[in-house]
Amino acid sequence: MSNTAHREKLMQVLVGPHVSEKATALADGSNQVVFKVRTDATKGDIRQAVELLFEVKVERVSVARMPSKAKRFGTSSGKRAAWKKAYVRLAPGSDINFMGAE
User: Fold this and answer.
1) Burial class (CB within 10 angstroms; exposed 0-12, middle 13-18, buried 19+) of 43
2) Sign of the four-CA dihedral 90, 94, 95, 100
3) E-only strand ranges, the chain
C-alpha cells in the first residue's frame, strides 16, 4: 500500500468524537478522549490516525464494541447498528481541544 493510500485509510478510521458524561469525566480526569471509530479499525490504526490528525502522542488505546439494539416503532421492529468506540489515552503534555478555544 502506498503512503498516500495508507494516509487516506487512516483519515477514515475516526468517525467522530463520542460525547457523553463518562467521556467528559475521562477527558477531565485521566487525559483520555473517546472516539466513535469504524468497526474494522484496529488499535494500531486508531493510534496512527489520532497521531496523524491531531498531532499528539498517544500512550494507550482501548476499544469497546457496542452491540446492536432492538428497537420498536409502533408495530414495526428493527435494529440499531452495532458500532465501536475507542478510549485513547494521551501522553502527558498532549491535549485535544474540540471546542477550538485555546
Assistant:
1) middle
2) negative
3) 14-17, 32-37, 58-66, 70-73, 76-79, 83-90
Give the pLDDT band (50/70/90) at residue 101.
Answer: low
90 C-beta neighbours (distance < 10 Å), count:
21
What type of residue is 24?
T
The average pLDDT across 97-102 equals 62
One-letter amino acid identity for 31?
A: N
**Percentages (nearest 5) of helix, strand, coil residues in the chain:** 30, 35, 35
Q: What is the C-alpha to C-alpha distance for residues 68 and 66, in angstroms, rounded to an integer? A: 7
pLDDT in tens, 39-94: 999 999 999 999 999 999 999 999 999 999 999 999 999 999 999 999 999 999 88
Cell 495508507 locates to: 6
Q: Are 79 and 69 in contact (CB under 8 A)?
A: yes
| Cell reading at 94 | 498532549
